[in-house]
Structures are given as structure tokens and as C-alpha cells.
């Protein structure tokens, strides 16, 4: 096994380092909060009744990723959220979550809302996909 690189002194290529590894901090004592990932797709009557667009219930046909993070005893002002193309980085005084996302997202088109009664942060991110026979827009 031989690594080809421009600089002979490097021991790995930049492609070998996963995106978001700069956020990893194994020595951080904060606990990881509970979270849930779900997918959301926009469907119309042409999808539900006629199946005209070819969409199915799989994640390949979804437009958004919805991440619900439980943050007990946290105020909205304590939350720091950073979204990259493949990484969600959440930090509070008590919790830290570094989440590698299952699909690349458009980090500029996200929404986040904090449901204070339920102590849940809900983050909705638009999946960034290449156009194919399923995803036309």
C-alpha cells in the first residue's frame, strides 16, 4: 500500500481525513445529549394518489433532515450551533454533540427552533443532492 501525494513528507492524504474531525474532542467531559434523526419529504396528490413523480418512502426521495435534540435544563441563550456540509456541532454548558450527518446538507438553508416547554432543539436541514431520476429539483 503506497500513498501518492504531492509532498513526500505527508503521511496521509486530505481525502483520508473525514470532514468534521477538527471538531472531535475526546477529552471534553460534557455528556452527549439524546437525539433523533428523521427525514421529511414534500409530497402532493400526484405522489399520494397517482405515483406520477416516482417518489417512494425511502430516504433517497427525502428533501430534509430533521434532528431533534433533547437538552434538559438548557436555555436558548446557552446553545451554540454550527452546521457544516456534513457535520452538526452543538455545544451547551452541559452537553456537546458532534454529529456526522448521513447526507450532505446545504448549511446556508437550515432552520432551528428551541421548544422550551419540551426542552428540545429541532434542526431542519435541506439535503444537498445531485440531480438524478428521483430528485429533479
UniProtKB/TrEMBL annotation:
Any one annotated GO CC term: cytoplasm
InterPro entries the UniProt entry points to: DNAAF6, PIH1D1/2/3_CS-like
One Gene Ontology MF term: protein-folding chaperone binding
PIH1D1/2/3 CS-like domain: residues covered: 32-127
Biological process annotations from GO: axonemal dynein complex assembly; flagellated sperm motility
Family: Belongs to the PIH1 family.
Protein name: PIHD3 protein
Amino acid at each position: 500500500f503506497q500513498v501518492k501525494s504531492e509532498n513526500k513528507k505527508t503521511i496521509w492524504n486530505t481525502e483520508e481525513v473525514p470532514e468534521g474531525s477538527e471538531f472531535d474532542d475526546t477529552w471534553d467531559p460534557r455528556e452527549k445529549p439524546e437525539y433523533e434523526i428523521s427525514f421529511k419529504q414534500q409530497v402532493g396528490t400526484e405522489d399520494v394518489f397517482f405515483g406520477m413523480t416516482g417518489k417512494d418512502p425511502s430516504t433517497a426521495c427525502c428533501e430534509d433532515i430533521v434532528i431533534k435534540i433533547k437538552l434538559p435544563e438548557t436555555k436558548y441563550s446557552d446553545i451554540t450551533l454550527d452546521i457544516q456540509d456534513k457535520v452538526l456541532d452543538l455545544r451547551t454548558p452541559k452537553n456537546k454533540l458532534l454529529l456526522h450527518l448521513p447526507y450532505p446538507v446545504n448549511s446556508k438553508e437550515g432552520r432551528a427552533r428551541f421548544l422550551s416547554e419540551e426542552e428540545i432543539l429541532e434542526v431542519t436541514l435541506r439535503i444537498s443532492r445531485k440531480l438524478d431520476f428521483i430528485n429533479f429539483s
